[in-house]
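Section 5: illustrative case.
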């Protein structure tokens, strides 16, 4: 397939899928689908939903398992340090029946991201809580904490990054371009040769292809025995992100969305790009997700999506 900027490509080989047994026409549910081959997370969600749990409880169970296993170092504690070496958690859960959403972002000191997101949905009128206040809420609702979310592996990764002049990073149009901060903005009105040289150094291409190491999210969709749909996401964000950065993981409609009457959509990849092009918006409009041109843009980045109609997997 020819390379196109930011094509949403359905990677069947990178999805984990479990469906019920029997006649598909008569026994369509339950069903669990997840981005990336996080098999144990899918099995955990499957055991829950096959045992009669709701779609919401099952998706929380699946994502929670991935957090506990620290899937690929990109979910749960112990991975993806930011510029300061700290690991934080983003998570979201959405109920396709009630359209309720709970999410946490840049949450510190609490490792149970998806459970914290469910607590936001169940015990507040809000959709999203962030930072230390999200942590305080989660702990007050009974989750364990505060706890250090870093690990020896994440600290070692961060130390090596610092020794490599903080390269690569997510800064742009700053000085210095090729070393650690403190950083200062480039004055675009300065047309000197030195300023132009600095600007050239700041032109960093984004990742162009989706792979096992260019993602940072588990996105999961579950249809329970009643045919109800829920989605969940969990991530510790982009490695070496600028402190305070929030990606698509806790943003409804960007990382995941669910509507009982329609279906669900989940995405993974470059979260800063996903938030600009809201994958969910495309699918109810009848866009053919197998068409690589259907949801392309000029972002210069690629990500993967999956979609569930209320009567099956696409």
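Designed sequence:
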């Amino acid at each position: 397939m020819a390379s196109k900027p930011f094509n949403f490509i359905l990677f069947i080989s990178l999805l984990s899928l479990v469906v019920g047994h029997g006649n598909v026409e008569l026994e369509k549910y339950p069903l669990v689908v997840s981005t990336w081959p996080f098999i144990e997370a899918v099995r955990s969600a499957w055991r829950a939903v096959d045992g009669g749990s709701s779609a919401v409880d099952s998706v929380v169970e699946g994502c929670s398992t991935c957090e506990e296993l620290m899937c690929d170092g990109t979910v749960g504690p112990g991975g993806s340090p930011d510029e300061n070496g700290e690991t934080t958690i983003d998570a979201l859960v959405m109920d396709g029946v009630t359209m309720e959403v709970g999410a946490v972002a840049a949450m510190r000191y609490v490792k149970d991201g998806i459970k914290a997101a469910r607590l936001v949905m169940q015990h507040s009128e809000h959709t999203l809580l962030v930072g230390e206040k999200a942590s305080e809420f989660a702990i007050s609702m009974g989750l364990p904490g505060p706890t250090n979310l870093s690990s020896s592996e994440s600290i070692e990764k961060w130390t090596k990054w610092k020794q490599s002049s903080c390269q690569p990073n997510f800064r742009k149009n700053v000085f210095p371009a090729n070393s650690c901060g403190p950083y200062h903005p480039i004055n675009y009105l300065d047309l000197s040769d030195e300023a132009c040289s600095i600007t050239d150094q700041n032109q960093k291409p984004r990742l162009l292809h989706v792979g096992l190491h260019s993602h940072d999210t588990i996105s999961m969709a579950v249809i329970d025995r009643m045919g109800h749909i829920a989605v969940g996401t969990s991530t510790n964000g982009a490695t070496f992100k600028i402190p305070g950065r929030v990606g698509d993981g806790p943003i409804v409609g960007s990382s995941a969305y669910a509507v009982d009457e329609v279906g669900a959509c989940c995405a993974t990849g470059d979260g800063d790009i996903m938030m600009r092009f809201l994958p969910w918006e495309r699918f109810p409009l009848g866009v053919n997700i197998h068409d690589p041109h259907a949801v392309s843009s000029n972002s210069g980045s690629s990500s993967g999506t999956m979609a569930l109609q209320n009567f099956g997997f696409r």
